[in-house]
Specification:
The chain is α/β, with parallel strands linked by helices. The protein is 41% helix and 16% strand. It has one domain (25-326): Alpha/Beta hydrolase fold, catalytic domain (Rossmann fold), CATH 3.40.50. The model is unreliable at 1-21 (pLDDT under 50). Residues 68-313 form the AB hydrolase-1 domain.
Length: 327
């Protein structure tokens, strides 16, 4: 019997090592991560630092309709996970702009004071540089918070606001314990490939091997010599989310808005700091989506059954049909 359990332990260790071997060391600026389209850079100066904002600018592949869609990624992602959405939109006649926000993806990772107002201003600068006067914006997760802030600041530049399982539908400061940047930084430094894998599993209702590519990107930077900088930026952007709620401002939106909500989503920023009882109460997207739609005058909501935090990956076809139809 002891030999049996020993063999099981060896097998599990071997499986764990197999996962680890699949995760390559990545640059914190993801130069060795394949993006679906060519990357361009917008130069920016902030707090005495010269930095650059990466973005993809993809032309329509047929029947150009003269319209543009901008895609804002979530906190734990970059433009690399939008490939299927870009292909569908450009195939439907749209020009698609996909920035990596400063602090994320291929963009610079400066140690600065991050705010949604500043990120929104940089995205406006990108539009100005490209000569784009109006755009529809699809924001996922943290990108939904940023898209909301952008629409509040620059409503004249937004045709439609499209929010895919945005975070910020509740004010985290009212129930998540406050943390200093240093405390959050120490938590970020403790991440491991397996802890990241478990976190990403919470995004989906059913885990598929294909999702391992997301884990590989998020975990690969851990092995970089520059990981401490990456972790500090992650802590600073966590504080940006915590300190910059939009939950009480949805009623101020003046642009046509559509929410796309995977009803099984339970994402909460700072969830690990909550009690088990609190985890049951908060992060209930099946309620948060509807409640938010009520706040936004004239908005619409599209809900997806058996879907978690990332509809454009978990139920790609269903999501794209809804997205294109909404545009």
């Amino acid at each position: 019997m002891k030999k049996f359990f020993f063999l099981i332990a060896i097998a599990l260790l071997s499986l764990s090592n197999t996962y680890a071997q699949k995760i390559d060391t990545l640059s914190v600026n993801l130069e060795n991560v394949k993006y679906p389209y060519q990357i361009n850079y917008l130069p920016i100066t902030v707090e005495g630092q010269d930095i650059k904002m990466a973005y993809m600018d993809v032309a329509p592949t047929k029947f150009p309709n003269g319209r543009t869609v901008m895609l804002f990624h979530g906190k734990n992602f970059g433009g690399y996970y939008w490939g299927n959405v870009i292909k569908a939109l450009t195939g439907s006649g749209f020009r698609v702009i996909v920035p990596d926000q400063i602090g994320f993806g291929r963009s610079s990772k400066p140690i600065i004071n991050y705010t949604f107002q500043q990120l929104a201003a940089w995205n406006k600068k990108l539009l100005d540089t490209l000569g784009i006067q109006k755009t529809s914006i699809l924001g996922h997760s943290m990108g939904g918070m940023l898209a909301t802030r952008f629409a509040l600041m620059f409503p004249e530049r937004v045709d439609k606001l499209l929010l895919e399982n945005p975070i910020g539908l509740e004010d985290y400061k009212t129930f998540v314990p406050a943390s200093t940047v240093e405390e959050q930084y120490q938590r970020e430094l403790k991440n491991t490939p397996e802890s990241i894998r478990q976190y990403y599993r919470s995004y989906f209702t059913y885990w598929k091997p294909d999702y391992e590519t997301l884990v590989n990107v998020a975990a690969g930077v851990i092995y970089s010599a520059d990981f401490p900088r990456y972790a500090k930026v992650a802590a600073l952007t966590y504080k940006m989310i915590y300190d910059g709620p939009v939950a009480d401002e949805f009623q101020n939106l003046k642009v046509p808005t559509i929410l796309f909500i995977g009803k099984e989503d339970r994402t909460i920023i700072g969830k690990a700091l909550l009690t088990d009882d609190q985890k049951v109460i908060y992060g209930q997207y099946k309620f948060l989506g509807k409640n938010t739609a009520v706040k936004i005058k004239g908005s619409k909501i599209v809900e997806f059954e058996a879907c978690g935090h990332i509809p454009h990956i978990e139920i790609t076809t269903e999501f794209l049909v809804a997205l294109i139809g909404s545009l």
